[in-house]
Design goal:
Layout lengths: L2 H18 L9 E3 L2 E4 L2 E4 L4 E4 L6 E2 L4 E2 L10 H5 L16 H5 L40 E8 L4 E6 L4 E6 L9 E3 L2
Antiparallel strand pairs: 1-2, 2-3, 3-4, 4-10, 5-6, 7-8, 8-9
Length: 184
């Protein structure tokens, strides 16, 4: 086999592999429960909020959320508030409020305990994690920052997706981040 033939075959194989292994991106929104999914975006049709499907530090690869570059996944509150993201053509991504983040709590029983003063504990044990992994694949099982400050601004509300509770933590702790934007 000549060098030219070998080179042609290698180029053809490289071209085919780039086509085969390209992430698959949707052109239309897909309805799942009360969410609409498109690529790395999640639109909540009940709140009209648009969420990044992946945690900060993860990337949507067309199939799931992955941390292919070993990025930092946890942030202090100040670092989380200063995150700048230009994603899917939008630059107005922000840290959600406590109330916005609580809307992502998923109770396997379908019955959140709304009378609990701590917020979203489910009436029966939630599925661990207490965030819908069909909608948010590879979501971490820990606390996520909200933008809601407490008392003298040294403490912040978080939502813990191990059990669906909200809690107050010191702003120098390190927690996960899921960014949101208002829908149009």
């Amino acid at each position: 086999m000549s060098a030219k033939t070998t080179m042609t075959k290698l180029i053809l194989m490289a071209f085919i592999m780039t086509i085969v292994f390209q992430p698959v991106y949707a052109t239309e929104w897909q309805q799942i429960k009360h969410y609409q999914i498109k690529d790395g975006l999640v639109k909540d049709t009940e709140t009209n909020l648009i969420w990044k499907r992946c945690d900060e530090g993860q990337e949507w690869n067309g199939q799931t959320c992955a941390n292919e570059h070993n990025n930092t996944l946890i942030f202090t509150f100040n670092d989380a508030m200063n995150l700048k993201s230009n994603y899917a053509g939008y630059s107005d991504w922000r840290l959600p409020t406590r109330e916005e983040l609580k809307t992502l709590v998923y109770c396997s029983s379908g019955e959140p305990n709304l009378s609990n003063n701590n917020g979203g504990i489910c009436k029966t044990s939630p599925t661990l994690p207490s965030i819908d992994r069909e909608i948010f694949p590879n979501a971490n099982v820990w606390r996520y920052w909200s933008s809601s400050l407490v008392d003298n601004n040294n403490h912040v509300w978080t939502i813990d997706f191990r059990n669906g509770t909200d809690s107050i933590v010191y702003k120098y702790d390190a927690n996960f981040v899921r960014l949101v934007r208002s829908g149009q």
